[in-house]
Design goal:
single chain; 10 strands; alpha+beta; 2 domains; 4 helices; OB fold (Dihydrolipoamide Acetyltransferase, E2P); about 170 residues; 5-stranded antiparallel beta sheet
């Protein structure tokens, strides 16, 4: 089924076909798509049962970080969207481990409060206790505070994942 031609881009047919088949996790690559667009079309989505009546479906790449607040969490998404989760940090970690076990690590736990998407880490400054996250798609800078020990562990973990020795 071709896409309607109302001044659409040359790749509208391919994108339209992907939208028709949404949910099947097809890998469709077209010459005009950037790697980010390809990843967004093929990436598996997390299914989060938020409460007895609510179910959330979100791409891991859209989650910037999750902040634990006692028996519940706050999930911060790209574009500044904030979603209250009615379960604790341990349950969120269990859901990630269960649904993303075959994929490479995307999230890292920092201290007792934060679960951070590695892709958004911009600056780690353990001396000042700062962790700065940056999203180039939606230019925003998020400054978080964590303990010096937690940030030092994060630096070493990221260094080990990239094969760089960090002091």
């Amino acid at each position: 089924m071709p896409a309607p031609r109302y001044g659409m881009s040359p790749y509208a047919d391919e994108i339209f076909q992907v939208r028709l088949r949404r949910g099947r996790l097809l890998r469709i690559f077209t010459p005009g798509m950037t790697n980010g667009m390809q990843d967004r079309l093929t990436m598996k989505e997390l299914i989060l049962p938020n409460s007895g009546t609510e179910l959330l479906k979100v791409r891991p790449s859209d989650i910037v970080y999750v902040e634990a607040e006692g028996n519940y969490c706050c999930m911060y998404l790209t574009g500044g969207f904030k979603q209250q989760l009615w379960f604790n940090r341990q349950k969120f970690i269990a859901i990630i481990n269960e649904q993303m076990k075959a994929e490479r690590p995307t999230f890292v736990v920092v201290g007792r409060s934060f679960i951070i998407n590695i892709a958004y880490i911009y600056l780690i400054n353990p001396v000042q206790g700062d962790l700065i996250l940056f999203d180039a798609a939606n230019p925003s800078r998020i400054k978080l505070h964590a303990s010096q020990e937690a940030l030092n562990r994060l630096k070493k973990e990221i260094g080990a994942m990239s094969g760089v020795t960090v002091q």
